[in-house]
Amino acid sequence: MPRWVRGYKLMNTTNYRNTVLLNLEMPNGRPALRRKALILTPGILFVVFAALLALPATRAATMWTLSENHPVEIITFIFLMIGGIYGLNLSRRLKKQGERFGYVLFYALFSLGLLLTGLEEIAWGQQFWGFATPDSLKTINMQGETTLHNIKGFHGHTEVFRLLFGIGGLTGILLTKYSKLTKIGTPLILFSWFGIITAHSMFDVFDDIFVVPKFMVAASSNLAELVEMLIGMAGLLYLYLNSGKFDQEAAESSSAVDQGLN
Fold this sequence. Notes:
This protein is mainly alpha-helical. About 70% of the residues lie in helices and about 0% in strands. Helix 5 (about 70-95) runs antiparallel to helix 6 and helix 5 runs parallel beside helix 11. The longest helix has about 50 residues, at about 215-260. The relative contact order is 0.14. The model is unreliable at about 1-15 and about 20-30 (pLDDT under 50).
């Protein structure tokens, strides 16, 4: 069996997130059920929202949940902020533990990216507090908001950033083959999350270049908000699961020291 696959199997650890989410051979059915739930969640959400948009009876209500300043966008903001704060704390902890500077820097930058995206979701607080857009930004912002992604040139092309995030996550799975990059690699269990994000974003890029049926363009545009929510959730899950890699190593090192002293 390839080493990068064996890396997902746990031998002697009580780490909760690894035991519940990463072990591929748990005899107890409950952890396996939780693992399947995590794998299936993005697909279920995508199919359910697509079906609700397709049905005339539920289309209006579903579009309301996907519109700006409504449930899906608020949930996206919450996950992005939690992920960003969690990741910065992880980066600080890794620095304190004397981990490689590359790990510390990577997780700090990734977390800052989540925070920046979260703040962009709420127009840096403008959606909540209603402050006026600075004149210098208002003239170049296509929606007159305090946001960067709606500036001329970026507006309407955010699917490129979603695509890069998805491809980055999928590439991260391959990085686990290399021992020096395992700790920043993407856990295999998140393949479905990054796969759906990538597939939808690729279609969004495709329909900007080629002619596709209008109903498909409309559906893809509406579902973009859902994909952004999946990005927020995947970002937090990535950080949470990868923090377990460091916890496991610390626990194993501590156990080895204890055995040496005995």
